[in-house]
Amino acid sequence: MDYEIKSVSDLTVGDRAQYSRTITDAELAMFAGVIGERSPLHHDHLFCQQTRFGRPTVYGLLIAGYISTAVGKLGGPTGLYVKQELNFRRPVFVGDTIFATVTITSMDATTGYIDFQASVENQEGVVVVHGPGRLLLLAEVRTDQ
After folding, report:
1. Which tens digit of pLDDT belongs to each residue from 84-136?
2. Alpha carbon separation from 96 to 82, 101, 113 (Å, rounded)
3. b/e per residue, 73-93, with b = 16+ CB within 10 A?
4. Which domains does the chain have, with CATH numbers?
5. What span, in angstroms and rounded, lies between the C-alpha atoms of 101 and 124?
6. Beta carbons within 8 Å of 112's beta carbon, 6+ residues apart
7. Distance CA 7, CA 79 (A)
8. pLDDT for 13-50, tens place per residue?
9. For residue 35, what are the CA distances in angstroms to 31, 38, 52, 64, 100?
10. Where would I find the H helices in the chain?
């Protein structure tokens, strides 16, 4: 398989990458199985009718995983996702389409660190998650010296 190896010189402040996806019941169930958590807030429709949202919400870290996919598109196969602050602003529900976007805010050619702002919007353009993060381009950092 061919990969596009990226270096800091291939990127500039303002560059962005995006990943979009419509959340399904199957994805929610698979994620719950992987992490071993079955909170009724994410799976029990009757229980959720008693909550402020009225229906099950998608796991916040599943949404964060979609940010990771956008980060991977931005940094390529030698981009190591090293830091992320997440602010969960609105719930996401099964059937929502989310758009995870990461935008480079600063870069350090010496270290290979790239800072970015992540933002996830739903199909209505409402920001549901956002926060700054950091990526390390390993193509720029040699460990064998």
Report:
1. 999 999 999 999 999 999 999 999 989 999 999 999 999 999 999 999 999 99
2. 28, 16, 33
3. ebbbebbebeebebebeebbe
4. 11-140 (3.10.129.10)
5. 15
6. 7, 8, 136, 137, 138, 139, 140, 141
7. 9
8. 999 999 999 999 999 999 999 999 989 999 999 999 99
9. 6, 9, 25, 14, 22
10. 25-35, 40-43, 45-48, 60-75
| Matching residue, tokens 């209505």 | 124
- Which whole-number Å values give the CA distances from 100 to 68, 103, 118, in the listed order? 9, 10, 7
Please report the pLDDT score of residue 9 as a whole number: 85
Q: Is 14 left (phi over 0), alpha (psi -120 to 50) or beta?
A: left
Residue 142 CB coordination number (10 Å): 8
E-strand ranges in the chain read 16-22, 79-84, 87-88, 97-108, 113-121, 127-137
Alpha-helical (H) ranges within 15-102 are 25-35, 40-43, 45-48, 60-75
For residue 122 the two structure tokens come to 């739903």
